[in-house]
Design a protein that fits this description.
Layout (H helix, E strand, L loop, with lengths): L9 E5 L3 H7 L4 H21 L4 E8 L7 H25 L1 E6 L7 H13 L6 E9 L1 H14 L6 H7 L10 E4 L18 E4 L9 H13 L8 H5 L9
Parallel strand pairs: 1-2, 1-5, 2-4, 3-4, 5-6
Helix pairs in contact: 1-2, 2-3, 3-4, 5-6
Bound molecules: 3-methylbut-3-enyl trihydrogen diphosphate (IPE) (2 copies) and magnesium ion (MG).
Length: 243
């Protein structure tokens, strides 16, 4: 059941635990990544049903290049295959795809797949799905600053924010990390400033609607104060804005 109360409009997820899911079953790690794709499909459907506006998922980090070469190439292959397989359904479901990350490090084949998927779904607006691929929060801050510097623009918070690869969506309200680790691993460093964090012990392939609803319920119990006091948030005085 979908919890009542405020719905996070932007949910971001560190989809972690694929490798452990596979290892527990004596399967190769790539089998875990494949199962992780199924979990993502289920999660997208759940977000559509719950009318979440934006879903951002961490699929491959700047640091994941440090994994064994066969796992890295397997992940690249999985992305290309998944795009070919999933885009027609995403198109029908009203999902708009965005890829967020450093394309400079990706092969032509991968880049073409990303471009085609973005173009094909560009008219959709029901759910914005940001797939962070070859992405790192530090990369995003650095590329935004470099862009401003090259244009001779002053580096202000607002200008940086607008130059970032995630500028097309509001900051995430809720960041979920599966797999039991309590860290961000270079995900949305700038945008996470006021996100509520939810850590799940479930491995990503086991993440389901019930766990998503648990995260949303927990989100609904949080008081977002943005630096104010609790009293200010509960009954804002004249000229004050409730967060
Ligand atoms: C997350 O699962 C997916 C990627 C980083 C690509 P992992 O592959 O990190 O799974 P664990 O953490 O080793 O279980
Ligand atoms: C974070 O998971 C990256 C993705 C889920 C794509 P990792 O498994 O790479 O993170 P660490 O290495 O445990 O910090
Ligand atoms: Mg991991």
């Amino acid at each position: 059941m979908t919890p009542s109360g405020g719905l996070p409009q932007h949910i971001a997820i560190v989809m972690d635990g694929n490798g452990r899911w596979a290892t527990k079953r004596f399967l190769p790690r790539l089998a875990g990544h494949r199962q992780g794709m199924e979990s993502l499909r289920r999660c997208i459907r759940a977000c559509l049903e719950r009318q979440v506006g934006v879903l951002t998922v961490f699929a491959f980090s700047s640091e994941n290049w440090n994994r064994p070469a066969d796992e890295v190439s397997g992940l690249m292959e999985l992305l290309v295959t998944a795009l070919a397989k999933e885009v027609p359904q995403l198109l029908k479901d009203g999902v708009r795809l965005h890829f967020v990350g450093d394309r400079a490090g990706l092969s032509d084949k991968v880049c073409t797949g990303l471009d085609q998927a973005e173009l094909a779904t560009a008219a959709n607006s029901k759910l914005i799905l940001n797939v962070c691929f070859n992405y790192g929060g530090r990369w995003d801050i650095a590329q935004a600053a470099a862009r401003l510097a090259a244009q001779g623009q002053p580096i202000t918070e607002m200008a940086l924010h607008q130059a970032m690869a995630m500028a097309h969506v509001p900051d995430p309200d809720l960041i979920i990390r599966t797999g039991g680790e309590l860290r961000l691993s270079n995900f949305l460093l700038w945008q996470a400033a006021y996100a509520e964090l939810f850590f799940s012990d479930k491995l990503w392939p086991d993440f389901d609607e019930a766990e998503l609803d648990r995260a949303i319920s927990e989100f609904n119990r949080r008081e977002r104060r943005y630096g104010q006091t609790s009293d200010q948030v509960v009954s804002p005085g004249p000229g004050q804005k409730a967060a």
